[in-house]
Amino acid sequence: MAGSTFGTIFKITTWGESHGKALGVVVDGCPAGLPLTEEDIQRYLDRRKPGASDIATPRREDDLVEILSGTFEGHTTGTPISLMVRNTSQISRDYGEIASCYRPGHADYCYDAKYGFRDYRGGGRSSGRETVGRVAAGAIACKILGQMGVSVRAYTRSIGPIEADMSHFDENAVLSTKTAMPDFSADEKALAYLAQAKADSDSVGGCMECLVTGVPAGVGDPVFEKLDANLAKAVMSIGAVKAVEIGDGAAVSEKYGSANNDAFYREGKSVRKKTNHAGGILGGISDGDTILIRAHVKPTPSIFRPQQTVNRSGEDTEIRIKGRHDPVIVPRAVVVLECMTALTVLDAMLLGMSARMDRLTEFYRRRQ
Amino acid sequence: MAGSTFGTIFKITTWGESHGKALGVVVDGCPAGLPLTEEDIQRYLDRRKPGASDIATPRREDDLVEILSGTFEGHTTGTPISLMVRNTSQISRDYGEIASCYRPGHADYCYDAKYGFRDYRGGGRSSGRETVGRVAAGAIACKILGQMGVSVRAYTRSIGPIEADMSHFDENAVLSTKTAMPDFSADEKALAYLAQAKADSDSVGGCMECLVTGVPAGVGDPVFEKLDANLAKAVMSIGAVKAVEIGDGAAVSEKYGSANNDAFYREGKSVRKKTNHAGGILGGISDGDTILIRAHVKPTPSIFRPQQTVNRSGEDTEIRIKGRHDPVIVPRAVVVLECMTALTVLDAMLLGMSARMDRLTEFYRRRQ
Amino acid sequence: MAGSTFGTIFKITTWGESHGKALGVVVDGCPAGLPLTEEDIQRYLDRRKPGASDIATPRREDDLVEILSGTFEGHTTGTPISLMVRNTSQISRDYGEIASCYRPGHADYCYDAKYGFRDYRGGGRSSGRETVGRVAAGAIACKILGQMGVSVRAYTRSIGPIEADMSHFDENAVLSTKTAMPDFSADEKALAYLAQAKADSDSVGGCMECLVTGVPAGVGDPVFEKLDANLAKAVMSIGAVKAVEIGDGAAVSEKYGSANNDAFYREGKSVRKKTNHAGGILGGISDGDTILIRAHVKPTPSIFRPQQTVNRSGEDTEIRIKGRHDPVIVPRAVVVLECMTALTVLDAMLLGMSARMDRLTEFYRRRQ
Amino acid sequence: MAGSTFGTIFKITTWGESHGKALGVVVDGCPAGLPLTEEDIQRYLDRRKPGASDIATPRREDDLVEILSGTFEGHTTGTPISLMVRNTSQISRDYGEIASCYRPGHADYCYDAKYGFRDYRGGGRSSGRETVGRVAAGAIACKILGQMGVSVRAYTRSIGPIEADMSHFDENAVLSTKTAMPDFSADEKALAYLAQAKADSDSVGGCMECLVTGVPAGVGDPVFEKLDANLAKAVMSIGAVKAVEIGDGAAVSEKYGSANNDAFYREGKSVRKKTNHAGGILGGISDGDTILIRAHVKPTPSIFRPQQTVNRSGEDTEIRIKGRHDPVIVPRAVVVLECMTALTVLDAMLLGMSARMDRLTEFYRRRQ
To answer: Which value does ipTM take for this structure?
Structure first.
C-alpha cells in the first residue's frame, strides 16, 4: 500500500530507486509566497552527498536538484513543488550475488517476501539514496521554519564508543568535520576508530541528535498525533535507525521522579523550566523549551567479510559484498534527521493554527 | 486538530477525560464475522485497572465496558463498534492547586498554552485514564490477530535498576505479579524497591517490552509507513514513554556490523535468521522473526514532595500534590503497550493484502 | 474498511445502528473555547426527528443527546466531543421478511454481499437513523461557522413535480412547514401530492438545496480537495441522494459560455460577480459569492406494495414491507444536507489558514 | 493545504502547471508484478491530447510520458511510480491581460484570493492540462482493473442540446469521433452545432457518462466512504464539472418509489436486478450491476467575446481572451472521467479485501 507520503498539511511524497533514472519528491501544501530557489535545496542535498572523505563512499553523485513545478517568479505558489534529482553515476554492471542472494542486515529478503521480486540494483527503494527526496523536501520545511523563528540543528553525538563532549559544542564543527560531530577533538578520535574498522572489513554504528529551538508552547495534538509520537515515527522511518529518544530518553527508566520532573519558574512574562529532562515536550505538546531528539543508528550492513545467507531459491550460501560503502551511516544521516524533524514540526505548527476559537475567529475577521 | 484517531483500515478514535462522564472508543474497519462479547474486552481492561495492590492506586474503578454498536448476534458486523466505560468513582472535590498550578512533569501548562484553558479534573484528557479506549480497541485487535496466528505479549522488563532475568521468563508471572514482570524473583526485588521509593515520597521509572510472533515476512510499507516507524509512533504516543527501541535498539550505536548483522539460513522451506538483532524488522518490513519493541517509561510525575512551579497567573509558587498515585507507571502500562502494538501490526497486515497483483487477482477471482 | 470518519482537521466519526442500543458521533479537532450545551445540538436533532405530521413516520423517538466528553464549564476544550443518543423506541418484534429477504431499493443485499451477514433490524447501519451522528456533529460546525460569519441554510426545493417558487422564499416556512419548503403555498400543494402517493401505497422523490453565505474567497484546495468536490462527496454520502449539483448544475451542459460566465465587477473594495451561475465556486475555490448546492433524493424505497425480490437462500420471492415509513425522505434530510455542508465548509476553512506565508508568519509572530 | 493527493491504498499525487517545465504524477501503492510500459500510459494520454480536429485546440503537445521509477524488468515493483510529461510547446509570450485581469468563469480571482498571487501562464495549476497526471495514473488503474475483470468506459452523452442516441451505441465511435460520442450520427450533428458556436465566438457545454462493469457486489464503505460518494468527489474534482449523477440521477426527484425500485431476481446462482435505476450502487455499496456515472460540464469559459471583469488592482475593465481554446471541453474530458472513475473503483476494491474475517484469515493462512 501507499507508504511514501508523509505529513497532513505540509505533505511530501518521495519516489525513486538507488539506480533508477531519477529520484524526487512532491511537496504539497507548501504555503504560497516563500522565496525558493534550487540553491536553497541544493545546500541541504550537498550535506548528504557521498564524497571526498575516507569515511564516505568515493562515489561521485552530483545530485543536482531541479524544481519542476510549484514556483513562479522565484516564489512558491501554493501548488505542488516537484523536485527531481537525475541519477548520473549508475553504470550498467553485474549485480551478480546481490540479485540472487539476501544480504544480511538489508531488506532484500523482506522486499521479495512482500512484493514477489525486487529491484536489486543498489538496493532499489530500500537504499539510503531514497533519502534524497526527504532532504530536498526538508530543506523547504527548514526555510519556512526559519521564517517562523524556529531553528533545527542535527549533529553526530557518537560513533561507536567515541562520544562528542557537549561542553565543547561547536556548530562549525558539525558542518566542517567528516563525522558531523560538534566537537573537533571527538571527530579526530572517531576518524581513527573508523579507519580501524575499515581495515578490519567491518562497519560501526553511532548516535545522532537534533535540537529544535523557537517552537512555542502548545504544538502537537493529543493523543495519537503527539509531537513526540510523530517525531518518533519520522525518525524511526529513516533506514538503519533502531531507537528514538526524546529528552532524557531511555535513561528515565532508571530515574526517580524527583530527579526527572522539571520545575517551572517565571521569567519575565514567560513560563520556563529549570531543567529540560522532558526534551521540550510534555503530554505530547511542546512546552516552549528546546526539543531534543536522539536516534541510534545501526552499523552499515554492507561489510566486506563473507557472510552466511540464503539465495532466492532458498539455498544456504555465502555472500561477499563488493562495491563502495560507508563504514558508518551517521554522518550522512544527520541531515536526514534534521529534515525529518523539520517536516514533522512544521506540519504540527500548521495544523495547530485552528486549535482555539479566539485565534480562529480573529484570523478570519482579518480576511473580511 | 483531530489527534484522537489511529490507524488506516482498522481505525480507532478514542474520547473521554479522566473525570468526565465516560471514556470510550469507536473501532471502525473491524472485519465482519468476528465473535465478540464484552467479556473479550473486559479481560484487557481489567489488566490496566488500578487496584488492590500497594503499587497501584487504591482507587476503585470498575471500568465496565459496554458495547453500544457494531455487533449483532454476537459477531462484529463490519460497522463501527462503539465501546464505552462510564466513570463511576469521580467525586466532586476541591481540585485547588491542580486547577491553578502547573504540575511539574505533567501536561497542564502545555494544555493551557495550546487551548487557552483545560479540564483540570484528574488531568482531563492528558490522564493515563485516556488509555481505556486504547485498551478496549486493542483487545479486539488482539483477538483478530489471534485468529490469524499472531500473538502479542508485553511485560515489564525493569523497574528502576531492577531488571527481569529473561532466562527465568515465565508468562504466568506477567499476569499474576503486581509488577507484570515475567520473573517472580525480580518482581519481589522490584516491590521492595518501590516500597522504599514510596516511603521517600518519590516515584520511579521502568522499562517494558513487547514480543510479537507469527507475523509473516512482508508486513510494513516503505518508506514512511514502515512497520517499525508506525510502532514507534504508537508506543511513543503512550503517556510517559520517552524512548522506543526495536530489537537491539540503542545498543546498535556501539556495535560493529559483523556483530549486528543477522545471518540467514534455510529451515525446511523457510528462510530464518540465526540471530535477531534486528528485532524482526528489516527496512521497515517484517522478516518473519519475532518482533521486539522496548519502551522506556518515566517516573510518575505526581510525587508527594513540594515542587517549585508557576500558577496560571504566571507567578512562582510551590505545589504539593495530594491524592492517590502509582509510584510507578509501568505495570499498568504493559497492557497499553500490548494493545498499541497489536493495533499497529493488525492495520499493517490488513493494508498488506493488496501488495501483489497475483494475490489480488486471486482474491477477486474467488469472488466471481 | 473504516468509512465512518469524515474531515481532516474537524473530524467526525459516527457510529450506531437503527435498532441498536444507541447512536452517536465523536467530534475531534473542534477548536477550544466554543460555548456548547446539549441544547445547541438538540435543536438540530429535533429537525430530523420523525414526528407528528402525516408525512413523517409516526414513530416517537425522543433522540435526546448527551455530551459525554470534550466540554468543561460549558466550553469545548479542544479534546474529542463524544455525543450519544440512546435508542428508546425500538421494541422486540418479528423482523420476519426483512431478515431473510432483500428489500428492493435498500442496501440489504449489498451488506450481505460485503460482510457476509447484516444487522437487519430497521436497516441497521444503512438506515436513515445513521444521520443522527451527522446532525449532532453538524450542529457544532454550524455554531462555529456562525461565529465566523458564515451562515448555512438548507430547504426543500421540490417534492415530486411540486417546486417551491423561489420568488416567494420565506425562511420561516423552512422551519415551520411539514415539507421544509421555503414557500407556504408550494408546501400545501406538496402535502396534497404526498397524501395521494400515500393513498396509492407509493412514495415520491424530491430535491433539496443549501445556501452558504459569508465564506470568503479562497477556500478549497485544488486539485482533489476542491470545495465542490468535497461538497459532492459529503452530500452524495447522504442515503438516497442520487445527484449533486453546484450552482447551475446539470443545466450548464446545455448552455453557451457567453451565458454561463459570471462577469466580475468592483463594489467598494470588493470583487463581485454580476451573476452566480458558478454557485460560488470557481476552480474548486470559493469566490466569495453564495455557495449553492442541490441534491436530488430518490423516493423512499420502503413502499407498501408487494415487490419481487430474492431471499438470503437465493430464491425468488415476493416481499410486503410493513411498518411506518415516510412517503418522502426530503423534509427530514434537509437538516442533514445543512450539516454535511457545514462540516465540509468548516474543515476547508480550518485547513485554509496556512495557505500563505505572510498570514502564517503573522499568526505565529503574535504567539511569541 | 495539500490537495493534490487522491486515494488511500492506490494513492496518486499530481503536480505541474500548464506552462511550467513539466507535469506529472506519483502513483503509490500500486500492486507489484503488473506488466507496465510507457506505451500502456501513452495510449490514454493520447486520448486527451489536443489535436488535429476543428473542435480541439490546434496546439501541438506531444505529451510523451516517461516512467522515472517504480518498475523493474517491465513490471511494477510495488514502490512509487513516478511519471513525467515535459512541456515542450510553451513559448515565451506576452500574457498581458491574463496576468492582470480575472477571466470570467476561470479560477484566476480565486487563486489570487487564496494564495496572494498566481502563475498566470496558461492558467497555471487551474488549467485543464493538470489532468495529464490524472490520466497517466488512471491508465495504470484501468490496466489493473482489466486484470481483475473490471471494465471502465466513458463517452460523451451530449453536446449542448445534441444527445447521443443510446440505441445506436457503438464503442468504436467513442474512440474515433471528434466528439467521443458513441453514436456517429449524433457526432455529425454535434460538430455542426459546435461550428456554429465557434463562428459566434462562443462555447458550449455537454454531458459525459461512464459505465463500469465487472465490479462484484460489496464494494464501497458506508457511511462516508460510500462508492457513490467517492465517485462524486472524484468526478466533481474535474475542472468544469458542475453536476454528478449516479444511475437515474436527478430524475429520481420526480419519480415514484414503485417506478424507481429495482426488483431483485435470481439468475443461476446470482442475484440480479430487473432494472438498474440505482446505477449499480445501493447504500453506497456496489450491487454487482453496471455502475453508471454522469457528469455535466460547463461551456469552456475562454470565449472570444469581450467580457466585463476586474483587474488585480480592483478596477473594472474589459477582457478579450486570445489564443487557442476548445469550444467544448467534453470530448477531451471523457478520458479524464474514465480515469477518475477507475482510480476510485480500484481503491475501493483494494480497501475491501479485509471486510470479512473468513476471507482475511484465509488470505493469511495461504501465506504461512
So the answer is: 0.97
